[in-house]
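Subject: mismatched residue count in predicted assembly?

I count 1076 residues in my input, but I want to confirm that the predicted structure covers every chain. Input:
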Amino acid sequence: KSLSMHSALGVLFLLTVAQAPLGVTAGKILVWPVEFSHWLNIKVIIDELIVRGHSVTVVTHSATPSVKTTESPGYNVEVIQVPYTKQDINDALEKFMKYWTYDLPNDNMIRTSLKIKEIMDMFVEQNHILCRKLFANEGLLEKWRKEQFDVLLTDPMSTCGELLAQKLNLPFIISLRFSFGSSMERLCGQLPTPPSYVPGVSLGYSDHMGFLQRVKNILFQFSQDVLFTLVSVVKWDYLFTEVMDALIQSDLQLCFTIGKADIWLIRSYWDFEYPRPFLPNFKFVGGLHCKPAKPLPKEIEAFVQSSGDDGIVVFSLGSMVKNLTKERANTIASALGQIPQKVLWRYTGEKPDTLTPNTRLYEWIPQNDLLGHPKTKAFITHGGTNGLYEAIYHGVPMVGLPLFADQPDNMNHMRTKGAAVMLDFNKMEAKDLKEALTDVMHNSLYKENIMRLSQIHHDQPMKPLDQAVFWIEYVMRNKGAKHLRVEAHNLTWYQYHCLDVAAFLLSITALVMFIFVKTCSWIFRKCLRRTTTKKKRE
Amino acid sequence: KSLSMHSALGVLFLLTVAQAPLGVTAGKILVWPVEFSHWLNIKVIIDELIVRGHSVTVVTHSATPSVKTTESPGYNVEVIQVPYTKQDINDALEKFMKYWTYDLPNDNMIRTSLKIKEIMDMFVEQNHILCRKLFANEGLLEKWRKEQFDVLLTDPMSTCGELLAQKLNLPFIISLRFSFGSSMERLCGQLPTPPSYVPGVSLGYSDHMGFLQRVKNILFQFSQDVLFTLVSVVKWDYLFTEVMDALIQSDLQLCFTIGKADIWLIRSYWDFEYPRPFLPNFKFVGGLHCKPAKPLPKEIEAFVQSSGDDGIVVFSLGSMVKNLTKERANTIASALGQIPQKVLWRYTGEKPDTLTPNTRLYEWIPQNDLLGHPKTKAFITHGGTNGLYEAIYHGVPMVGLPLFADQPDNMNHMRTKGAAVMLDFNKMEAKDLKEALTDVMHNSLYKENIMRLSQIHHDQPMKPLDQAVFWIEYVMRNKGAKHLRVEAHNLTWYQYHCLDVAAFLLSITALVMFIFVKTCSWIFRKCLRRTTTKKKRE
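Triage response: the counts match. Full output below for your records.
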């Protein structure tokens, strides 16, 4: 018996050894994060890296609204002092969101563009200050050089992580959901995005586009590329040149530097995305933060159970939206009062007058645990990627009230895949919301479709978080992943698109035709002359 | 103690359950294989499927040189009776190889093209006969319909597997190393192959091409596409129309049918390939047949051990080449006599006169076990994909003597990655081979490079065979993988390349310019007339 136990344990040991990743030793990772939901997502990766014994250092700044810098959070923190405050960032963001949610839909294009430019300029300005402060701190850079990190993980929505990696001579990994018009992926990552079936993010198209949609898609891609290039050149190039002492041999320094990334961890997957081409160093890890539901707090569980067979509706517009206008809040509350389900609404604004007893307001809800609860029938969401992936993970059909940024586009993906109804937040009336909710809960197609997406999500060779960590550790143990980087990075744009070859072939063809025509006409004239001479003689 | 054993076994059980793939039950797989090395490769997948409890039925024909049909090999066999024999196939192949190896390098282009066309026509003719015999057998089709297979696995180098899948209404999976010029992947699979950095297979270029190479690459891609389309239309379309009762709504029926594949299992990986774009339903499973070395037979092990510190060289030109010309065999044998290593040469031809005692001839060698032996210093190979992957797996530098088909291109990959020296089989002299061998064994760069490729091969999230089986089982349990198929399949070629959009935008631009010029000239004339009138009046 003892022997058989011994051998059983032996097998167990062998199994464990066999499962341990290839030659991983504890490493050192430097992280350049972005705030808010981006931070929540990258935090999951950081936590997993710590669990696996790695040492993680997060670079943040004194005004960070998201990164915990005081308590000991398991990772090391380096705080760059900046001359703006957390309040400045929050205020700017709130202003931005209010404008986008309420005023933008009624504004004309020029005013919208100017307003967006103004806000963007402010974000870039903050980014700039942070970047300068960082590279001015020679002592810190020297300390990091001595610490010998293995890899840098950066979210390129905040510029300079990639530059830091270059400055410290580290391989680096990008964490990205998308860039507007996919310009960063296309121009810097060399990702092919055939405009005939890869819709530009934010256009709200699916991969099945009509003629006019394809026209608009191409023009959109083109204009975004121009815009991205302009911003890179005007806003960033001189800073990059300064920091790298003009060592970068390229016209587009931002793009050139981003293009050196070893791995791109894209925060989506084919449950969410329309199928499209990608490259060997693009890895899709959408939903890496999702996990099985934990039991709910007692009070919430009691409320959920009180819903009986009707079940519950989970409602959140994300961590960024704190207030709605009184009118919007009342419209929503009165709609929620007309359904038999119990509703859990994450909302910190003033209690709407029309609120009915079936709806409870919460400052915070355990969203993932609620979405994984068997009584949950639907999810009202703003369409942020994190929440949307939790709905996919647990298979909950959605009603989308997208507000800004990628949210309308995200919800459109779910709508075209038949897993959600989408409403116009500003124009919807109470009956629209009520009808949408009734629809997604009673028309079984929505449930079937979201369950199909859920099945796609769960049925992968490797879980998203494991895959993200695998490739980070891969870069650590192999000091990069250059064998996955396409040669396109070393071509100019006209070489990449074969324009030089086309020009050459056209020239040859033209030359051949020219010689042919000239020869023919010469022969023709010769013959003609002879005939004329003959006739004359006759 | 019993308790702890119990719990240990419990954990073991849990581990086993946790590792079991998601919801897989025993399924039924129909296989449409190709002969020779293709069969060896697909056989590994079949064996693994059988181990996992699936039932496999292989469709073959009465003249098969590779598939065992008599003994019980673990899989079911359906033999289609054809009017040609195994001898016919072997003879044709030998003729083909002899021509390619010895005569082709000295032949002019027109004769070569005609000869290759003649041989190809013969293979297509055999394929045709097999296909017709299959679809004429209504009883067999009816039997298969009743048997309700879950998936069909086909090697498209032999046409009709994809048609059989359509006829039986089955999801299907393609196993492919490449098609010439990648036309099948590009035209039927919608794989983007940017000609600026994806070299056409058989050109012998790397991903880093000069201007003239890019010109040739584009012309090659284009000509291969034209050829592939012609062959499809002339040779196959009417048969496809006939079999499917004209149900296929497309001009290019072969391509249209192949394009319906759920998954493409590509028999390579980034250890071998230059990085390039791919699609969500393309999975790279190169080297799936490789496994750790087993102990050698006693006699061979003794010979290997007798090599002392010098080690051994493994030499095989593959299973297809049985004879060399006397002159070539003598050249090779005399070169082998000049190195201190012991050589194991798989060769069934006449014993060369110049053979020395350090070289032994074998009718068959345990190639994988030899390549995995610690005493192995180098591998002389024709550059077939299977052997090449075994060398990558075990990290053995190579001397390539490529003969035909994809072999020169394969070896070129290894050469550009610094893991092999390549020789011209027909022109090399004894000293060339001797020098090449000395070089790969003594210049440590070759060993370092092949070890780097080996590291890339082994350091994947999932082993190639497991990945192949995962996606086959995926298609079985999900009845397809349509969510991985790009929308490009539903676009015409001019839509795909946005030519309609380009024409539209150019027309608009032209129209605007026309109106602008006309307006300007009208205004100009008006002004001019007025001035003239004025002047006249004056």
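The mean pLDDT of chain A is 91. Marking this ticket as 'not a bug'.
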